[in-house]
Each structure stands twice: as C-alpha cells, then as structure tokens.
Amino acid sequence: HSSLLALDPSQPTSTQNPSTGDSGNYLIGVGRADCTGPIAEIPLMGFANADQVGGGLLTRLYSRAFIVAEPDNSKRVVFVSADIGMVSQKLRLEVLNELKSKYGELYRQDNVILSGTHTHSGPAGYFQYTLFWITSRGLIKPSLQAVVKGIVKSIDIAHENMKAGRIFINRGTVENSQINRSPYSYLQNPASERNRYSSNTDKEMVLLKMVAANGQELGLISWFAVHPVSMNNTNHLVNSDNVGYASYLFEQEKNKGMLPGEGSFVAAFASSNLGDVSPNTRGPFCINTGDSCDNPQSTCPVGGAKMCMAMGPGTDMFDSTRIIGQNIYLKAKEIYTSASQEITGPLSSAHQWVNMSDVSVTLNATHVVKTCKPALGHSFAAGTIDGVGAFNFTQGAVEGDPFWDSIRDQLLGKPSNETQACHDPKPILLRTGEMTWPYPWHPDIVDVQLATIGSLAIVAVPGELTTMSGRRLREAVRSEFESHGTSGMNVVIAGLCNVYTHYITTYEEYQVQRYEAASTIYGPHTLSAYMQLYRGLAKAIATNTVQDLPSGPEPPLFNITSLTLVPAVIADRTPSNKAFGDVLQEVGQQYRVGEVAEVTFVSANPRNSAENATEHNFLTVERYINSSGSWSVVHNDASWETRFYWTKGLLGLSNARVEWHIPSTTEPGTYRIRYFGHYKKIPLFQPAVYYAFEGTSSVFEIISL
Fold first, then answer.
1. Binding residue positions
2. CA–CA separation, 508 vs 188, rounded Å?
3. For the whole model, what pTM was predicted?
4. Region (Disordered): which ranges (predicted)?
5. Catalytic residue status for 278
6. Of residues 152, 92, 122, 49, the one with CA closest to residue 500
7. 582-703, what's its fold?
8. Per residue in 632-679, pLDDT tens?
9. Which residue ranges are tagged as binding site for Zn(2+)?
C-alpha cells in the first residue's frame, strides 16, 4: 500500500506546470448551493446569547462540496464545508439518509465528511440534543431543512459535474490574522513541546488546488485555524464571517462577471484546530476602562469578566471581518497560484462510532485511564474574550460557586460523585451526561472519521481542537502511518465535523479550566482517547484492513420533527394607504463612492420567503444601461456591499431597510434598488396563502469624485 503513495515515476513530477492538461489522476466534481435558511427571528448559532437573533442579511451561507473519485470510479471521498456553526448529529444523519435514497451505497458514513466553517452568524435550531435547544429555542424545522437541502444539493451538483482532473497541495503562513485567546492555558503545555513551535497558534494554511485535465480551474479547499468571530455577539445580520468573505473574494475573482453565488469555481475556506484561536488581533481590553485584561481569568478590575472583550483590527466588526478575510484570501491566492506539488495515489476512508463517555485509553505500559460522561464546567458559562457569558462567571474556575451550585442542584440535579471525580479538577456546572429529559442533553455516541486522498489525510474531528491538541493529533496520525510504512503523509485537521462535542484541550490545558477546558465534555483524557481512536483508523487504512474495523454503536436519531419556542409567523399587514413594497423612506438623488445609499420599504416577514422559495434573493442593486434601455443587476443580497435589515413592528407590520455601501469600483451612472418578499395571509378556516411582491426605489445617480 505504501509504495502506491510514493511518487510514481510515470506520473508527472511536481515541477510540471499544473495548468498543462494531461489526463487527470482523479475524477473531480465541485458544487456550491445556498443553505442560508430563515434570516429573521431565529437565534444565531455560536455565542449562545439569547438576545442574538437574526434580523437581516449581510452575506448568504453556502454549502461547498468536493467529490474525488479514483479514475476507475471504484472509490470516492466527499468533503463538504458549509457556512454553518457546526455540523450536528441530526443534520449528518438526515443528509446521509437523503444521499442513500438517491445514490444507494455510493455516499456513506465512511466516505462523506461534513464540516462547518464555524461562523457564529448563521441560523440555529438544527440540533437533537437538549442542551443546544436552550439557546436555539428548540429544533427549528426551516433551519434544519435549509441546511440539509443545501448540503445535498451541493453534493448533487458536484456528482453531476465529475471530470478527469488533478490535485495540487501547497502551504503558506498567514500573518496578522489570529491570536491565542487562552495563552495562559497554552503555557501549561510542557516547555519542551512549546519550544518546537514558533507561535502559540498554527499560522499555516494548507490548500488543495483542483484543476480539470483540460486546464479548467475547478476549485480549492483551504484549511486554516481561526474562529469566524470577527462579527461579534451584537450582530443580527446572517453572514459567513471572515472565512466566508475569503471564499467570496476568491469566487468573485475566478467567476468573472458573475454575481455572488453564481459560477462554476468553488472556493472553500474550511475550519481546522481553531479551539483557542481568535481573529480579534488587538487582544482583550476592558471595554469600560481601556486597560488590557490579558490575565488568567480574563477579568477587569471594574465590572469583572463581563467587561473583557477582544477587539479586531478594524474600525468596527464589518471592517475587521473584511481585513481578516482579505488576509486569508491573499495568502490563499498566492499559494494557489504557485501550487505545484501533485497529490497522487489511492483513496481510502474509515469511520467508527464510539461511545465517548466510556473509552479506556492506554497511556503507557502501566497506565490506563478513562473518558467520562459529558459535563460542562463553571467556566463554560464565562464564555470567551470573543463573546463573554452572563452573570459573574469567570474563566479558570477550578472550584464551584456555592450560589450557582445550589441553584443547579434545585433545578437540574447534582452531578454524581463518579462523574465529578472523573472530570477533576473541573467543577461541574451542568452534568449533561446524566440529564435525559426530554431527550439526552449531550451525545455519547460520536463519529471518528479519517479519509485519505493519496498522501493527504483528512482527520474529521467532531469539535474544536485547541492549537496544541491539533498538533498532537496530527503528529499521532502521521506517525501511525509511518510505523506501517506510509511516510510523508500530509495530515490536516478538519474541524466541526459530523457531530458537535464542544472543545478538546490537552490534558495540561485542562488543568487550569479556562473556557475551552471547561467545555471539554468527556473529561481530562478526551484528547488521548481521540489520538488512540484516530491512530486506529490510520492503522486500518495503512494496512488495508478498513473492512475489519467494527462500526461501533449506532447513534440515536430522535424522532422530533419540530419543537420550538420561536413564535409562528402571523399574517403580515401594511400601514393604512400603503401596499407591500411601497417606499417609506426614499434614497437620495445622488451619491459618491464610499457613501451609503439606503431605502426603507413596507415589508413582510422574511421567514415567509425562506419557507416558500428556495434560494430567495431579497434585493438587487441595478444600473441603467443606456445603449439597451434596460436595467442590469450589479449586486444581490449575497454581495458584501449590501445589507438587508428587517424591523418587526406591531401586529404584523414590519419594515425592510436596504443599505448599499457604494464601493470604489462603482461606475458612475443611474441606479436603483429593488426589494423582493412574500407576504402571508391567513383566510378564515383555511391554510395560509403566500404572495410574492416587490418594491423599487427612485432612481439615483452615482457621480464620480
């Protein structure tokens, strides 16, 4: 097996220009599909902030799919990166059921990897475990359906467009785009280990470039470790954050003349070991005094932990998103252009379900340790410098708080002595593994998965590994391959895959119980367990014994169709003497580039559109073409330059405000802004009816500076 992975002399060598078309080593398909879902009244997934509900749209969310098959079509690997907070177990199981009904045994548990980018500005509500219902307000069917449909559609498109092609790999260092948000935890790792690395974050981007045999550029996957939290927990506009903006820039460049979301080139900026990595590069400051709060507890002298927030490099969160996204894009562009090392060799994939609450880990000849039933520590409630928690919880709590513990005991019950001892030194706040009403609060059964494309190994991890955890896991997988004769594997961590299990810190980081450690739900030996499990998968692939791997205990799929506190959409109304789409506040007559054109319309609930039109576009900016006497669309609601704000009034009244932040590239001329929606009527004793409508601003001029 290992000899196949070595460079075959008959294959083109790495110095060959990637664009010269010789027949491909693989069949490759790429696809992109909208997975935005409802953009209003639905909580956003990520910061667990009850006030953070959707109220409009900055950029659309997409699922990006990549299928690689061996030339004889015998084996396939699918990698999907979706602009969502994380992949949930329910989401994965529903996607796999759909794929099975369409494609039989072609796309399966073992060869389909689903990864979330970890944007914190996408709709929540697609989880089956109870803990996630609290901040998501339950299981929200339109949210779940939009993501299932989008992922499946992106795979369908990739499946229908398979062509012979080649894959190249490259690496580069991304500067000025991340900081470690728990440096005190990182310093607990052995000095001898830290000394091997130049930084307390992984600055390396790994990129795959995919080119068809005829020279057509197909797409790319980039893996880079950074939290997509440039948009903070005060944001209410659905968007894909910094990594989504990098995708947007790359796709706009390659799909020339196309609107966002259109065009065949697909660029995925996927998540990696981002657990302790923030894009807010100015670091943590007390928002009330301006002092640094870069201390082990992330607290401020006045106001405590609630005042300690990290700031991005920009003037506001939109600007910070743009700056970090552009940094990532520019490095990707550079290493994409120069990529010349070709990936060749067979495909393989391995998957197991594991009961993570009960794994025995052999540390060495004399020590066997165990993982624990899931539980969250006190510092989980503190949040992070990217999004602080409520009340007075602080990071780094290694003792419980009598006040909160007594409330917890009354409401939710006390953790068992066994679970508390297993998680030591974590003071348990929520004993989620012992809470089963109305359904289990956390998963026990977790996916571990590994796929190889020639010399590339993709480790699909069900959570957020910290920087050092990721380094240890990559090294474990690489050395396992090596010990079975397969050397020089390129190992990448794909984060937020398959099922969400919060964080995975190192044993040493766990001891000081900052947020990431308090959220390492299977206890201090979680990372060691994963290292053992992924080594097992690597060994099976390297020794060609994948068929002998036990598949493990199957996870439950709870039969919950919808269970939510999100209010139903009532019938929409207009103010008297107004119709849907009428202008309430008009645009100005003329603008210069750099200014903001805005217009407010009589609107209806945007949830109507998510539920009644797939890939609904809420707005266009249009330019008048004199020669043809017609209007041409220059931006849509997925454009970075446009913002759609929805404001709910009383008893079915609402307004929509469209902003166009006029970019410097805008040509002078005559423009207008249009808005598209659906209003809902509820006739007596009959099902609701939805009607499409539109509104158009007055025309306005863009004049040159």
1. 118, 227, 464, 503
2. 6
3. 0.96
4. 1-24
5. yes
6. 92
7. Immunoglobulin-like (2.60.40)
8. 999 999 999 999 999 999 999 999 999 999 999 999 999 999 999 999
9. 118, 227, 464, 503
